[in-house]
Amino acid sequence: MKFLFQNLLFQSPLVNLFSLTTIFISLHCGNAVNLPNNETIPALIVFGDSIVDSGNNNYIGTYVKCNFLPYGRDFGSGNQPTGRFSNGLVPSDIIASKFGVKKLLPPYLDPNLQLEDLLTGVSFASGGAGYDPLTSQLALVLSLSDQLNMFKEYKNKIKEAVGEMRMEMIISKSVYIICIGADDIANTYSQTPFRKPQYDIPAYTNLLISYALDFIQELYGLGARRIGVIGMPYIGCVPSQRTIGGGMYRHCSGLENEAAIVFNSKLVSQMDAFENKFPEAKLVYLDIYNPFMHMIQNPDKYGFEVVDEGCCGTGEMEAGILCNSYSLNLCSNPSSYIFWDSYHPTQEAYNLLCSMVLDDKIKDFF
Asked: What is the Cα gyration radius of the chain?
């Protein structure tokens, strides 16, 4: 798995994430979008991987961590490594802001969470997780099953605090975002010997789809109704995949992009079938592949200059522990880079991508 080469076991003092929620964030958060019929969303609940992990991995025994500088360089007042895999905000924060819920979406495992934090939503995501349970096992992170169990615990906490009726209202009216799967393709399938000998791309994507549908159905059974699923990104063109699979000239790696296209096509079809079966569900497919591809292929249109390297170090392989305070050549202007490290976009890229992916789809949640 890629993280096995990129990361070493790292222990760092845990960050008091609750104190960070008081930081004033102005220019770097997504603008709220007008919701249909003047509706309001009580909470945003997020499941997934490092793209939407706002710090859960700080509190578990994994090497997939980023609660150290230079992560968080542009978070809040600056130099606040919270466990978010970027220089600042991540999509879970930006999406919460777009739905008008709050500016920061805290990690569920933060021991300093207050009742109001729970009532308005949390992220259960864990960097390094995947639809495939093996992906989470290899990275020693929270699987989707673990995240779902935490959601059940979350429901009980809400029920005890505000009563069953209000809990059920919060659960049914909230928006749920699922963002996961890239590590299955980029790491477990491409970089380990555990899946590729048994599965070609069609078969492996079928396996991932089966896990995805099981998760969506369990989530629906627990009361979720407004569920957005972010598809696979243009994963073969992130810097680390260029380095690993792109040859001497670091072209985009075709295998990962092919797998993403196949998976996304199947996901759309299965989500349509699910919604027909469960008409109370509002399932929204959120396409990130095409916007991300367009951004990478046309960086100047979005104000970016560098597309094939991350801001941290050489930008070709550094992520997690390899992107640290000792990394040489940390770029001076992250806003000109699409990628912060070799795997994760910058806050600036995330802001643009969230608008491109979500703004025109928000109406579909209602």
From this structure: 19
The residue annotated as part of the active site, out of 93, 110, 174, 344, is 344
| CA dist., res. 181 & res. 183, Å (int) | 5
All structural domains of the chain with their residue ranges: 44-290+358-365
SS3 content of the chain, % helix, strand, coil (to 5): 45, 10, 45
Q: Which of 49, 50, 92, 308 is catalytic?
A: 50
**Rounded-to-integer distance, Cα 290 and Cα 263, Å:** 14
Is-catalytic flag, 183?
no
Q: 5 pLDDT exceeds 60? A: no
214 is catalytic: no
Per the annotation, the verdict on 132 as an active-site residue is: no
Q: 129, 45, 161: which is closest to 92 by C-alpha?
A: 45
Tell me the residue length of the chain: 366
The C-alpha angle 124, 130, 134, rounded to 5 degrees, equals 120
| Domain 44-290+358-365 falls under CATH 3.40.190 | no
What are 57's two structure tokens? 């991995």
Q: What is the pTM of this model?
A: 0.91
Euclidean distance between CA atoms 317 and 309, whole angstroms: 9
For residues 46 and 223, what is the distance between their CA atoms, to the nearest angstrom?
A: 14
pLDDT digits (tens, 9 = 90+) for 21-51: 333 333 344 577 778 878 899 999 999 999 9
Compute the distance between CA of residue 42 and CA of residue 109 in angstroms, rounded to an integer: 20
Q: How far apart are CA 17 and CA 80, in angstroms?
A: 10
